[in-house]
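Task: complex structure prediction.
Instruction: return structure tokens for all chains below.
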Amino acid sequence: MTFKYNNVYINATGTVSGPFENNGPIGKYFDKSYQDMYFKTTSWEKAETRSIIDSVDILLNKITKTKKDIDLFIAGDLLNQLVASNYAASSLGIPFLGVYNACATSVEGLIIGSNMIESNQIKNCIVSTSSHNNSSEKQFRYPVEYGGPKKKTATFTVTGAGSAYLSYNKEGVKIESATVGKVVDLGVKDVNNMGAVMAPAAAWVINKHLNDTKRKIDYYDLVLTGDLGIYGREILKDYMKTEYGITLKNYEDCGLIIFDRNTQPVYAGASGAGCVPLVTYGYIFNKLKKKELSRVLVVATGALFSQTVVNEKSTLPGIAHAISLEALDLE
Amino acid sequence: MEKNRYKDIVKDHTPKENRLYNTMIAFFVGGLMGVIGQGLVDLYALVFDISTKEASIFMIVTLIFIGCLLTCLGFFDKWVHACKAGLIVPITGFAHSMMSAALEYRKEGLITGIGSNMFKLAGSVIIYGVVSAYTFGIIRYFLLGG
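Output:
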């Protein structure tokens, strides 16, 4: 399913990161960074909520609007029952849709918001996504202070939140089109190799997007996947070529942009629902606005599992959604 | 694509774990822990003038205390991560797993937090420790008569 948009723009973005992300290669692009993991709250879950609220506040300041001017708040995170987003929505008081597609949540939110704006159901909306390393480790893995060895293919969850303000005002970056992905399960059971879980879903949605829009892959200056990591990236390249005959050239992975694997202990790279928004709303948004990049296809990837199904040894399904972002006034 | 063919692609791009290196680290660190333990037993036996059996209990308590303290100070996880099974298999690993879970769930209350989650990682060790002790005890009773 591919949607074409004529009048949807990301006017502004707000990003809040944790200390590790701030020390990474694109740290200077974030609007605000905290130096400890508690973000001046008393728990990691509250810290995650804090990061969403902060990113929305920063965003509202940038566009000089108040909460009352916003029609809809779409948000999602990785915590059970979306608690981080729920509490942020409770504090903000804007009509709220909670969305979940694991680490593909950010683009899912953008697609929902864009469709509503394109069809004039709403004038504007804010789309937020967050993750927090410690709250995710606690929920999906081991206690944070437990130091059991990790596999090389394991990833490091991003701490932070990104918010985008969408409206039909021609300003910022254009959302040109989007493709909704399907759930793909090719039988991977290793929860420590999420790149392998998500790569086939990313490949499917890229191919679908190119077919629906009748484009070649080199139409885009950059194809950006969510959080496949260093090994997942190679799997995707290989799979894309053998299955669909497409060679990925101008291709990067958000999980490898946000951290420096040589100096930061992040194993195969970054992951988490906050990874795509921090990279896209911080770094890529900036480049598109300055026209250093013209057309970017963002493919957010998510692994759809819970700890229970992992323990029951089920195969792990993945999903990916693609959204095409364009600099303004392209020929 | 067939799942098997995809498995091959995944396998091609999945790095191998350095089993030999990990084993050597575990061997040397585990051995060092053994030396420290034996040193403590000898020390306690000499200083307090007690049997080595009693001194070994003192030694275990000391190592558990150190494991818990260093976990609470926040850097033992990095040591365990680096030393792998060398610190996980000895009693320090058991102390570390319980203390890290206790720290993690403190905010959820004494009963619903610490009480019900402290054995999250270590519970299996206790359960299967007791089960295997019973099993081998019974075998020993029938084979050797107690």
